[in-house]
Amino acid sequence: MLTRIIVAVVLAPFFFWVLLAPPAFCLALLLSGICALASYELLKATRVAHHNLMYVFTALAAVVVPLGYWSGYGSLVTRAVALILMSALFFVAILRYDEEKPLGLEQVMVCMFGGLLIPMFLSSLVVLRGMEHGRWLVLLPVICAFLTDAGAYFAGVFLGRHRGITRVSPNKSLEGYIGGILSGAVFLLLYGLVLRRFAGLTVSLPILALYGLLGSAITELGDLSFSLIKRQYGIKDYGNLLPGHGGMLDRFDSMTFAAPMLLLLVEIIPAF
């Protein structure tokens, strides 16, 4: 527990500093590294073959996508990366078809998920950062992802009675899930009040509450989704890069779902 706290105390301020202080390029660069590591952890966890540059192709794709969104050509870059990565993966699969252990479609799709979808979704942070009021918008998915987990944990500890509603995470309770969703709405309402008071923004609190409810709900779905993968492959964590926290993907699993959801909400119904 002490190690977990020390790592959080050291890394959390650095992450928030990159989100808020330097130019958006720094955030894109950090996300490139996070996505590359996350893709490696995913491929390793799902036992994708190490040979024939499968990991290299996937990691390189993961690096390029966030930088493409920072450049303002996210859609173009993502389509190009998707085509190149898919072509490279199937080329390898075709070459290995007659070998004893051919590369199956499942391995190709895992590489596409790790090298394309995860980076594309996490790049929503870069898009939010580049918008008007970007320094405040980029914190929306961060609040949802991190504080939903905290709210769900404490609600489960103190109020949890109905556990085992899903075998993917049998220790979590219905009360914990509800508490997590409600905490997202509460914390975003508080965030809205802070923005009104200290940033001088005209903020719609009902819309922020909606952000919190939907963002927290999909945050919990994201957590369960990546837990499902771990269950299927019989692993506890995706890695041990962050002592006490697991791997990079263990920390950013729910953010992979929360960031694109909040970006969609901001684009459709702006709160400020």
Automatic annotation (TrEMBL):
Catalyzed reaction equations: a 1,2-diacyl-sn-glycero-3-phosphate + CTP + H(+) = a CDP-1,2-diacyl-sn-glycerol + diphosphate
Subcellular location: Cell membrane
Keywords (A to Z) from UniProt: Cell membrane, Lipid biosynthesis, Lipid metabolism, Membrane, Nucleotidyltransferase, Phospholipid biosynthesis, Phospholipid metabolism, Transferase, Transmembrane, Transmembrane helix
Pfam families referenced in this protein's UniProt entry, alphabetically: CTP_transf_1 (PF01148)
GO molecular function list: phosphatidate cytidylyltransferase activity
Residues that span the membrane, as ranges: 14-40, 52-70, 76-95, 107-128, 134-155, 176-195, 207-229
Biological process, per Gene Ontology: CDP-diacylglycerol biosynthetic process
GO cellular component annotations of the record: plasma membrane
UniProt-listed PROSITE patterns: CDS (PS01315)
UniProt main location, coarse: membrane
Membrane topology designation: Multi-pass membrane protein
InterPro entries, alphabetized: PC_trans
Record-listed E.C. numbers: 2.7.7.41
PANTHER family, sorted: PHOSPHATIDATE CYTIDYLYLTRANSFERASE (PTHR46382:SF1)
Similarity field: Belongs to the CDS family.
Name of protein: Phosphatidate cytidylyltransferase
